[in-house]
Design a protein that fits this description.
Layout (H helix, E strand, L loop, with lengths): L1 H18 L12 H14 L5 E8 L2 H8 L1 H18 L5 E6 L2 E7 L3 H17 L12 E7 L6 H13 L9 E3 L2 H22 L3 E10 L4 E13 L3 E3 L5 H7 L2 H21 L7 E4 L9 H13 L6 E6 H4 L4 H12 L3 E7 L5 H7 L4 E4 L11 H16 L3 E4 L5 H9 L4 E2 L8 E2 L1
Parallel strand pairs: 4-5, 7-9, 9-10, 10-11, 11-12, 12-13, 13-14
Antiparallel strand pairs: 1-3, 1-4, 2-3, 6-7, 6-14, 6-15, 7-8
This protein binds ligand C2E and calcium ion (2 copies).
The site of one calcium ion has 4 residues, from loops.
């Protein structure tokens, strides 16, 4: 009776949902509001159950979409929804929130059983791969949070989402339970978001510069601008604590322009004092490449300060450019035509570095600092670095090595004719 009852209930809710257009036509999954309603009903009907909220997304889904086309993306979503459906019991439900995000309400009375379901899900998704030319692995990232009695379901959904976000590429595990530390991270994040607009106005963001050195004669030949946040109460905050948050809430669009303007201001001041200036590179979020307006914005700043664009370099991380996006590339080309130098930051840290070199007009390649962070550099690594340098030069690009900390590293880089180096061996980032 229980099984049949549950089954009938499910059919009934599915029918109601369809009627009210609460079902996503692509995957046949419920949308968020239908999911929430069904989940409340199930929780109410099964007081004996311990429930979990499951929040998943598909790793690198956007990349797959952009590389293989939307039909491939759709195929994966349909497959995922069907995989979810197949592990579901009658006292459980799931829905699609948006894109590749799915939520589920799962029975957690038996943790082993639940974890075996996650394994099933992963195994099934791992098996689908593009067969003809390419092979890629699909992996699912899952955040989990218990459903608390009496509290709103959206709280558990938020927490499961937080747990999901905490999973980084470095983690072996593909699922994670919410914990209180994540909450304090979120609170820190909220605090940063509360303060950021004021901080920009009050000029709490400072531009530090780290020199770049020409390896043949150890002379300074440029610098990279790196932002810091001087909070009145906490002191200097490093960019890794706030840039990822600003990337997410798009505040980075304002901050990068501010840094860019500060750099132009500094260069103008030095020109006015008849000092020699060096090219300065600024870090440039990929979000800028989503809107042509950036071309006018940069142009108006360089015009205002009368700084030649050839003294300004825009550093884009290679992971930013992996998404094969023609619009993005066209903006990059225009920036290049305006005279800005374009630099590929963190070269070698991602997947498609070499591919990108073929298609984008880079002037500079920055070798990722991780190349040097291994304890010992093996012969193989030396061969790789040597050939990257060679290739960059044949493509008429300058090459900068980041994170150079020892004389041995510098000597090696000099011996393979790398152009420039940047790192603690020479100087840390410092005020203008
Ligand atoms: P990045 O662009 O890869 O910058 C290089 C980072 O390596 C800097 O960290 C720098 O201080 C550090 N570094 C320099 N030399 C050495 C060395 O010899 N050894 C080691 N271990 N590290 C070295 P920082 O300043 O903390 O910046 C972190 C990241 O934050 C930057 O990585 C960049 O991605 C981002 N960032 C900084 N300023 C901005 C900005 O104005 N806009 C944007 N969008 N991102 C920024
Ligand atoms: Ca950089
Ligand atoms: Ca870098």
């Amino acid at each position: 009776t229980k099984i049949l009852g549950g089954y009938l209930n499910r059919i009934r809710t599915e029918e109601t949902a369809k009627r009210l257009q609460l079902i996503d036509p692509l995957t046949n999954a419920m949308n968020l509001s239908a999911f929430t309603e069904t989940a409340y009903q199930l929780i109410g009907d099964h007081k004996e159950n311990t429930y979990l909220i499951f929040y998943s997304d598909i790793d690198k889904f956007k990349l797959i979409n952009d590389t293989y086309g939307y039909s491939e993306g759709d195929r994966i979503l349909i497959e995922f929804a069907s995989a979810m459906d197949s592990i579901l019991q009658n006292d459980e439900c799931f829905g699609r929130i948006s894109g590749d995000r799915f939520v589920g309400l799962f029975n957690y009375n038996n943790p082993k059983l639940f974890l075996s379901k996650i394994k099933q899900l992963n195994d099934r998704m791992n098996r689908i791969s593009k067969t003809e030319t390419d092979f890629y692995r699909i992996s699912i990232i899952i955040g989990l949070s218990p459903v608390q009695e009496g509290s709103h379901l959206s709280l558990s959904i938020d927490r499961a989402d937080m747990a999901r976000k905490s999973i980084t590429a470095r983690h072996k595990s593909r699922y994670c339970f919410f914990n209180e530390a994540m909450k304090s991270n979120l609170m820190k994040q909220r605090e940063i978001e509360d303060l950021m607009d004021d901080a920009l106005e009050k000029e709490e963001f400072l531009v530090y510069y780290q020199p770049k050195v020409r390896l043949i004669d150890n002379e300074i030949c440029g610098a990279e601008a790196l932002v810091r946040w001087l909070q009145p109460e906490k002191g200097l905050i490093p960019p890794n604590d706030f840039i990822p948050i600003f990337e997410e809430n798009k505040f980075i669009l304002k901050l990068d322009l501010y840094v860019f303007e500060q750099v132009c201001k500094h260069l103008r001041k030095m020109l006015d004092q008849d000092k020699t200036i060096f090219p300065v590179s600024v870090n440039f979020s990929r979000l800028h490449l989503g809107n042509r307006e950036i071309l006018n914005q940069l142009q108006s700043i360089v015009t205002r300060y009368q700084v030649p664009t050839s003294y300004l370099e825009l550093e884009l991380t290679e992971s930013a450019l992996q998404e094969n996006n023609a619009y993005m590339f066209s903006i990059l080309k225009e920036l290049h035509n305006m005279g800005f130098k374009i630099s590929m930051d963190d070269f070698g840290s991602g997947l498609s570095s070499l591919n990108l070199l073929r298609t984008i007009p880079f002037d500079v390649v920055k070798l990722d600092k991780d190349f040097f962070h291994q304890e010992t550099s093996t012969e193989r690594e030396r061969i790789v670095i040597t050939n990257i340098v060679k290739m960059a030069q044949e493509l008429h690009m300058k090459i900068v090595s980041e994170g150079v900390e020892t004389k041995e590293q510098a000597a090696f880089l000099r011996s393979i004719h790398c152009d420039m180096a940047q790192g603690y061996l020479y100087a840390k980032p410092m005020p203008v």
